[in-house]
Amino acid sequence: MKIKLENISMKFGDLYAVRNISLSVAKGEYLTVLGPSGCGKTTLIKVISGIWKPTEGRVTVDGEDVTDIPMEDRDTGYVFQNIALFPNMTIRDNVGYSPRVKDMAQDEVDDISKGHLELVKMFDRAGMFPSELSGGEQQKVAIARALASGSKMLMLDEPLSALDARVRVELRYEIRRLVKKLGITVLHVTHDQEEAMSVSDRIILMRAGGIQEVGTPLDMYRSPKSIFAAYFIGETNLMECTVSGKTRTGKITVRLRGGQAVRASKSDLEVGDPAVISVRPENVYAAKDGLKAEIIGVVFMGTYWKIRTLAETTDYIDYNVSSNDEVPKKGDRVYLVFNKKATKVFARPEEGLEEAIKLE
Amino acid sequence: MPEIILDGLRKSFGGCPAADGLSLKVNDGEYLCILGPTGSGKTTCLRMICGLTKPDSGRVLFDGTDVTDVPVSERKATMLSQAYSLFPPKTVYENVMFSPQIKEWDEETSKQLVKSMIKMVHMENKANSYPRELSGGQQQRTALARALASDSDILLLDEPLRALDARLRLELRQELRSLVKDMGLTAIHVTHDQDEALEMADRIAVIRKGRIVQIGTPMEVFQNPRTPFVANFVGRSNIFIGKISSVCEAFTEVMLGNGSLIRARRTDIPAGTDVAVAIKIGSTRIPIVEKPTEERPEPEQPQGFFRGRVERILYEGATVTIEVDVKDVGLVSSKLPNRRYDDYKAGDEVTVTWIPDKANVFEISPDGIDEELRLD
Amino acid sequence: MSVFKWINKVSNNERSRKAWFSFVCLVFVVLIVVPSIFVILKMLTEWGVVSEVFRDSVMMSTITGALRNSFSIAGIVTVIDVAVGVPMAWMMVRKQFRGKKYLDTLMDMPLAFPTAVLGISVVMFWGAPEGISIPGLGIVVSPYVMLVLLHIIFTYPYMVRSLSAILEQIEPNYETAAMTLSASRFTAVRTITLPLFRAGLVTGTILCFARSLSETGGTFIALQMMGVGSVFFTGPTFIAYMKAEYGVDAAMGSMILISVLMIILALILLVVVKLLIMRFKIPMKRVWPDFGRFVSRGAMPKLKDTVSVIFLAVIVLIPTFYIFTYLTQPMAEIDFGSLLYSTGISFLIAGVAVVFNIVFGIPIALYIARKRHTTSGKILDSLVNVPLIIPTTALGFSLALFWGSIYAGDSIGLLMVILGHIAFTFPLVVRNITGAVEEVDVSYEEVAITLGAKPFQAFSKVLMPIIKSSIIAGAILAFTRSLGETGATVAISDSVKTVPVYIMELIKADNYPEAAFCSIILIAICFMFMFALRMIINRGDRRA
User: Is there a contact between C241 and C233 (Cβ–Cβ < 8 Å)?
Assistant: First the structure.
């Protein structure tokens, strides 16, 4: 199923939940809609699945305009954040609900129900009621139920956020394997960037009702186009600076708050422009010489240590040390250098850095 | 401030044990995380400490004094609940003022205290707002200020970050910890999120089925798990089932079902025992395949590990996860730094290796390994 | 101040909390539960006079006829209420439309009318009683049909309210989920929402059935106005009639018998209803997609809504307000002295009853709300609802027998009436507060206690401000209900003349205009209360 949105807007009262969004999703693509609370991401998939009718704009599926088709005729699988398995029915009947309401014969209903439960490895629980299952199991059944409608597209509305962190991690890989095997087009809404990174073919980063940036996880992480994307996806150190030099090839040098010069990658900015430099913790190293910093925290993160420092520029800079290496102590002084190829320099936003990365 | 001791606490609800001989010692001024899956009894544990739930048997001691029968309001142990429970008809200021007011402290002192607490959590601008007007993070900070203004010695945090967005959670971990540390409180923080526990705790107590399975510093719990469950819960692990074939000074050799031998940490378990081997996915390596050259037509392969085909490479930000399909064993995952992303592609023949010392060996419990590893 | 300090301190001790709660339960059982069902015990001790009634075949056939009328009317009324209440409740909860707020208020209107007044108004509208100068439709001549029409009016709001309350708790995502799985709205509601709906159906049915069964004043007046007051009976009017015609002592046997029969039959029937509804399976195997689609789209849903609104208007609202047509007539001569006196008595009774119920109802409501799943919670919950199910006339009669057997003098008529009103309004207050407390997350109080608040402070400083509006709402509901009650008052005492009793006597004396104007004045007073209720609830909503 190829899905296309054209200038979709959705208004509640006088407020736009989403505004003027155009987007196309390829057949079999796993697309994640990522963003902080209240950015309009759930509204977007509710419009696509027909639960809400957009105030303006068109939705087409495989070229056909479905904007005015009611949700029960859309055949869109939808998985809710609070799971919403029908509490009055067994697992088998839940999964068999869609074929049943389409008035299929009993054998057919049973076959479809069985097949889909086997798909998510839950057939041995078929006779149980939803309340007897754990959260993760319920969510698997909910996915089976959505797929049993024969739908070739699946909307996942924060499907993992009600679950334990550890279960979330297992289940996200399982979901991805399943839908890829079946060749289903998926739109997955989440506020968890880690989740988005690990399952998607492409990520749509939303903010305040609009699309901030679209790209593959790799692009989004390595070369974000905005400060917000750099900050929201993965962890990064952001430092205010000014462009102080530019080579003929476009590589620039910036001056940090304390006056230290740092070489950075290519940028369109000109000398003198106020800027913000972004360096991810894994691209910061302790060296013999560089930016002076004092270690203010050392945290064990499992496979690595997260070292938090206060640099002489008054910026907080984090960097990582492998758990096999020697770990510095709190209060130690270090010199930090950046992997210049992995730095990104952005024009300093007019509203200020704080405002540009505000989450709530 | 006080040291907390839980001594053999038992509590069951309608026959289901939520605490099954729970014993624990929390040091003075410590930040302890109780980590466990849903339904493991972690909230019950917290409620027994502050007295909201009365244990069926066992004792709770604060600084050596038995407080099991002391009323909740006298215990000086404050709860910061999951939903924050800010009193809806009161403003931020009035919420923080709650404790000073009911304890009838001197009015001027109270006002000063409340103001300083609100300032400390950066809520000065919102002092006159009602809870419903606040965002999740602001509510959380207000609840914290309210708890800090109550003159309590113990702070009990019940999944304090769960209701927040993932990104915000990351931001608030350090902030929350340092505020609590600055006040010098003894804090017990309940969570199901192992990253949160690793990052915030002085020590982690892993709880399961109403019992503490292991307690130790984050590093101890991560590197020397006591059971396969802990190994897989605190950081994902690859788990292999096999039989010990030999134990030597440097490592143990375990024979898997498919006949391959793998190396693991030295153990006291005798040869011939059925065991589970757990290796953190982040402790595995995938050496770059050497191209055959003129001098060495057959590049040397490390012995005692797995060979398989790269099934999938996931770019996850700072790390990449590589899933390798090993014949007769299944998928083996490996988490590597992101700079290794370009070194592999799907279909490559690779070897997954690890330092034998990082692979822990466990005897299989009588319930079976699947039950042992159940996450929920 | 020092009193509160003392309460705070005492409340911190678990033993004293238990002692206080035991005391409340004792008061509840001794003052409310036991007197309510005392008549059953009385039947055993007075078996002689009761068995005489069995031998009197004329009397027996009157009694069985009255019971048949009562139960069949209650049954028909309940079925109609369910049929029209479900779509109405659905519309009120799931739909947004202009004027919803007004419709909501209008729906509660019949609750503000004392049933005695409704009796007059309904007969005026549907029938054409003699002695009234205002023309009615005159199409209903059967007293049976008239009573059904009358009872629908004051049971309808209870049904819609209980159904709405449950519907609001049912996750709307279930319906949406069903619809994304290709179910039409009709199929989704039928297969998902309705089966989850049973609890609401049970409460609604019980409330309506019990209310219809126990209504006395309006029924009595309606029958009187139709001129069949001494030949057509329902259970409660029979008791009232016997008492007025023959006196308690002479009619003791038959009054005990019919009271006991009503109480026992009501209890049995309600248990059966509960089991039936909970067991009943809505057929799921077959679906009719095309039919479902037909009724879920286009004109059908609009038609359904229109019918619901028309029913509300024609069957419920217009007959209710018809009495106001009297305002076009010249003002009747009113004995203001008697009216004022009756009003004073009514307010005194209602006021004392409500205050008592709040003081003793809150602890019980708290207990039920927080311990609903425990055995003791369930027992207490059932006990609280006993006075709700027992017909008020039987309850009043039972109560009078109980206190009469303890204290022989007759100077305690007023006190006994107050106790009677306490008994049947108690469940209303407790149910309202229980509902409100259940909505409030218990963690508010728990956090307050861990912050150092004593249990009483946690209640008064944290819970109380949140549920205040619900307490007041429950109080006003109980107050209007007490103001409008006739049956219990009549059954307990002859000398206590509350306003509805006063109106009933005017009707008996065929003094319709004065009765009508007194009614209008009474309604005006009740409206002021309802209005206050709305204001308070709205204020509460805005804050929460």
Answer: yes
